[in-house]
Design a protein that fits this description.
mainly beta, 2 domains, six-stranded antiparallel beta sheet
Length: 226
Amino acid sequence: MFASRLRKAFAFGLCLVSCGVVAQAQDASPLFNGKNLDGFSIRSGTATYRIEGDCIVGKTAEGSGNTFLTTDKEYVDFELTFEVKVDDALNSGVQIRSHLAPSDGFQPKLGGKLPKDRLYGPQVEISTDGMAGRIYDEARRGRWLDTKEPTAETKSAFKKGEWNSYRIVAKGDRIQTFVNGVAIADATDSEDAKGHIGLQVHGIGRGTGPYEVRWRKLMIRELGKE
């Protein structure tokens, strides 16, 4: 009798854990609807973006500067997850809590002058050079916002030629990043309380490329104040 009750209690506990996991997963919403780019705008450069199956594919444009496919909506605190695959020769990234220069010659705090619609702010690096997952201040301070030196583990987290999973948690003034389950960056910065999310296609020089970067399974869970 006791053993039977114990088995039932154990099964009930497993159900609660399972239900909890399901509830947490359902709390996240697709950032990309899988059909079109409604809710996004292309900013700053002339690279192209297209939908291919379940992916958003960014393709370089020769001679273009950095280009961004940005959300029209601004986000505050959130957990963002996605998978990405990038050509080895291309540097890319995902902007978070980033901003658009409102006019030509606009000068953000701590940065130089920018052309209208130039996206600037924190960028989570996508690259094959060992810096993937680090947080760079794009078009503003021009430096890494995470200060911990990369390790052998963090440098090898991103896999060339494969789909790589990213998890980004922005809560208050803290940003944490994970690549394929490896903790990469943990930065504290108070400059950006909210802003746009942007998928970057890095600029390339003339006579190079074309290169591509692919994103899929883009999911966002907005975090309320706890």
